[in-house]
Design a protein that fits this description.
The complex is a heterodimer. By secondary structure, chain A is of the alpha/beta class. Chain A has two domains: 183 residues, Rossmann fold; 74 residues, no CATH class. In chain A, 37% of the residues lie in helices and 26% in strands. Chain A has eight helices and nine strands. In chain A, strand 8 and strand 9 form a beta hairpin. The two termini of chain A are 36 Å apart. By secondary structure, chain B is mainly α. In chain B, 75% of the residues lie in helices and 0% in strands. The longest helix of chain B is centred in the C-terminal third of the chain and has 36 residues. Classes of the chains: A alpha/beta, B mainly alpha. Chains A and B meet through strand 5 and helix 3 of A and helix 10 and helix 11 of B.
Chain lengths: 260, 309
C-alpha cells in the first residue's frame, strides 16, 4: 500500500439554497483518503455524509474549499471515469438482463464487444453471480440485485469505488454476507473504497478508517484509524478490540449530537 | 383483447346493449311503420297520420300491437334494428367485389390507409417534439402550450380549411386526410412521451452522469427504453384519434370514398342502413387497430423483460 492521497478535501464548505433558506450541508471538511483504503462515513441523517460522497463524485459542487480526486477536480475525475458509484438502490434497468446492465457503462465508454464480454464475465465472477448473466433483474433477490450493481460499478477500470449506503435496504443476514463478500472483493481488487453507512457494526467491520460525522452543519467530528487486521472473519465482531472500536464510534456520534 | 376471465362480463354488456337497442327500435320507428302499414291496407288507430303525431311512439305501438314486429324490418327506419345493420354489413362486406364502390371493404381501405399514414406522421412528429421538449428548455417552454392550444380548436372547423388549402396547392386524396389524422394523433404521443422520457428518476440520471454519458446516449440507453410503456398508452389513444380524423376529413368535402363518405351518403339519400353499417365498420376497425397495438405492446414489453400492464 502506497501512501499517496487518492482523495483529498481541504476546508470544504457546501451550502444549499432551498426555499426554506440556506442549508449548511458541509462545514470545514478536511480529509485525506489514501490509495487502497476502505473509508466509512458514519453519522445521523443530515450530517452530510452522502453530500460529501456526491462532492467526491462531482455530482455536487462545493461552495468553498478544495477537493481533488486522483489529483484532478471531481468534475475532471468524473469525465475521466475515475470512480464507480453504487447507490442505495440497485437501480438496474428492468429492460436489460444482468449482463446487459453490467455492459451499460462499457457501451457508453466505448469498449469493444469482446472487451465487454470479458469484463462482464470477470465482474460477475467477482460478485459470485456467475450464471445469472441472462436473467432479468426482477428474477433476482434484492441482495443479488445490489451485487449486480456493484459488478456494474466494477466493470470499468475505475480504482475508486464510492458506495452510498449500498446495503441499507437489505436485511441483516443478507447484509452480513454482502459485507464479508465486499471485504474479499476489496482485498482482491485493491480498490480505494468510500462507503457511506449509518450502521456502526458495518462501519467498524469494513473499514480501515472510520469518519464520524455530525449534523447541522455537517462536519467531521472524529476520524478513527482501525487497528483491526486486514483479514476479518465475521466473528471478529465478537472480539474485545471490535467492541471497543464500536464504542468509540458511538461516543463520537453522541458527542457530535451533544454539541450540535 | 378479452382474456379467459372476462368473456362473461363482456358478453353480458353486449347483450344488455342489444336488448336496449331492440326496445328502442319499437318507439323510434312506430310512426314510420304505422304510415307504411296503413298504405299497405292495415287498419291503424288513430286513422289520421296528423293525429298520430300527437302520440308518443310507445303509445302508438301499444295501441297497434300488430305493427310492433314491422318496426324491426322497415326499410328506411329511423333506428335500424341490429339484424338489419348486420345484414347490410354482411352484404356490403362479403357480397360485393372489394374494388366496387358498394363494398365496405373498399371504403374501409380508403379510410384505413389515410388513418395509418396520418398515425405514422403524427406519432413520428409527437416523438420528435417530445425529445425536443425534454432536451431543450426553449422548446419545453414554447412547444407545449401550442400543442395544447392546437387541440382546443374544433377539428370540424379546421378540417375543411386544411382540405381546401391543401387542395388549392394541388394536394388531394390521401394526404389531406392524413394531415388531419396526424393533427389529432400527435398530441397524445407528445404528452405521453414527455412523461415517459422524464420518467427515469434522479438516481438513474446521476448514474449516467457518473459514466459521463452524453445526452444522446442517455436518450438512447435510458430515456427511450423507459418511455416505451408510456408510448404504447399514447399510441392506443392516437390510433383511435387518427381514425376519427380520417373520417372527419371525409365528411365536409364530399369525399367520394371512405367511411365518412358512406355516412354522409346514407344521411343525404335517406339510407340509414348505409350510415349505420359504416358507423359499425369504423368501430370494428378501431377495435381491430387497438387489438393489434395491445398485442404489440404485450409482445414488446415481454421481450424487454417488463410485465405488460
Amino acid at each position: 500500500m502506497t501512501t499517496e492521497a487518492v482523495i483529498s478535501a481541504r476546508n470544504l464548505d457546501l451550502t444549499f439554497e432551498t426555499n426554506d433558506g440556506p442549508v449548511h450541508a458541509l462545514k470545514d471538511v478536511n480529509l485525506e483518503i489514501k490509495k487502497g483504503e476502505f473509508v466509512s462515513f458514519i453519522g445521523p441523517s443530515g450530517c452530510g455524509k452522502t453530500t460529501f460522497l456526491r462532492c467526491i463524485a462531482g455530482l455536487e459542487t462545493p461552495t468553498a474549499g478544495e477537493i481533488s480526486v486522483n489529483g484532478m477536480t471531481p468534475d475532471e475525475a468524473r469525465r475521466a471515469r475515475a470512480y464507480g458509484y453504487v447507490f442505495q438502490a440497485a437501480g438496474l434497468y428492468p429492460w436489460r438482463t444482468i449482463g446487459g446492465n453490467i455492459r451499460l457503462p462499457l457501451e457508453i465508454m466505448g469498449y469493444t464487444k469482446k472487451q465487454q464480454a470479458e469484463r462482464v464475465a470477470r465482474v460477475l465472477e467477482l460478485v459470485e453471480l456467475e450464471g445469472f448473466e441472462q436473467k432479468f433483474p426482477w428474477q433476482l433477490s434484492g441482495g443479488m440485485q445490489q451485487r449486480a450493481s456493484i459488478a456494474r460499478a466494477l466493470a470499468f477500470d475505475a480504482d475508486v469505488l464510492l458506495m452510498d449506503e449500498p446495503f441499507g435496504a437489505l436485511d441483516e443476514i443478507v447484509r452480513d454476507h454482502l459485507n464479508e463478500q465486499l471485504l474479499q472483493l476489496w482485498a482482491r481488487t485493491e480498490k480505494t473504497i468510500a462507503f457511506v453507512t449509518h450502521s456502526i457494526p458495518e462501519a467498524v467491520y469494513l473499514s480501515t478508517k472510520i469518519v464520524v460525522m455530525s449534523p447541522r452543519p455537517g462536519r467531521i467530528s472524529d476520524v478513527i484509524e482501525s487497528p483491526l487486521p486486514k483479514d476479518r472473519p465475521l466473528d471478529i465482531r465478537d472480539s474485545a478490540q471490535f467492541i471497543e472500536l464500536a464504542h468509540r464510534v458511538r461516543e463520537g456520534l453522541r458527542a457530535g449530537h451533544a454539541d450540535g | 383483447m378479452a382474456k379467459g376471465g372476462n368473456i362473461l362480463p363482456v358478453v353480458t354488456v353486449v347483450a344488455a346493449i342489444l336488448v336496449i337497442w331492440c326496445l328502442a327500435v319499437i318507439p323510434m320507428n312506430a310512426h314510420l311503420t304505422a304510415d307504411q302499414a296503413q298504405r299497405d291496407g292495415m287498419t291503424i288507430t288513430p286513422e289520421s297520420a296528423a293525429d298520430r303525431q300527437d302520440y308518443l311512439g310507445l303509445t302508438l305501438a301499444l295501441k297497434n300491437p300488430a305493427i310492433i314486429p314491422l318496426t324491426f324490418v322497415h326499410n328506411r327506419p329511423r333506428l335500424p334494428s341490429p339484424h338489419q345493420v348486420a345484414d347490410e354489413m354482411f352484404r356490403t362486406v362479403f357480397g360485393e367485389n372489394i374494388t366496387s364502390r358498394r363494398s365496405l371493404i373498399y371504403h374501409g381501405w380508403v379510410t384505413l390507409s389515410a388513418t395509418l399514414l396520418g398515425f405514422v406522421i403524427g406519432t413520428t412528429l409527437g416523438i420528435l417534439l417530445a425529445i425536443g421538449i425534454v432536451h431543450n428548455r426553449t422548446m419545453d417552454k414554447s412547444v407545449m402550450p401550442w400543442a395544447i392550444v392546437s387541440q382546443t380548436i374544433p377539428i370540424l372547423a379546421l378540417a375543411p380549411m386544411i382540405i381546401v388549402i391543401l387542395g388549392s396547392i394541388g394536394i388531394q386524396g390521401l394526404l389531406p386526410k392524413s394531415v388531419i389524422s396526424a393533427y389529432l394523433s400527435f398530441f397524445p404521443v407528445v404528452v405521453g412521451m414527455v412523461k415517459g422520457l422524464r420518467s427515469p428518476g434522479a438516481m438513474q440520471l446521476d448514474l449516467l452522469r457518473t459514466y459521463h454519458a452524453s445526452d444522446p446516449q442517455g436518450l438512447w440507453k435510458l430515456r427511450l427504453p423507459a418511455s416505451i410503456p408510456y408510448l404504447f398508452a399514447s399510441l392506443k389513444i392516437g390510433i383511435s384519434a387518427a381514425l376519427v380524423g380520417a373520417i372527419v376529413g371525409e365528411l365536409p368535402t364530399g369525399a367520394k370514398a371512405g367511411f365518412g363518405a358512406r355516412m354522409l351518403v346514407g344521411d343525404q339519400y335517406g339510407q340509414p342502413l348505409v350510415t349505420w353499417a359504416a358507423l359499425f365498420a369504423a368501430a370494428i376497425t378501431a377495435a381491430g387497430l387497438l387489438a393489434i397495438l395491445s398485442l404489440l405492446e404485450r409482445r414488446t414489453l415481454r421481450h424487454m423483460g417488463m410485465v405488460a400492464s
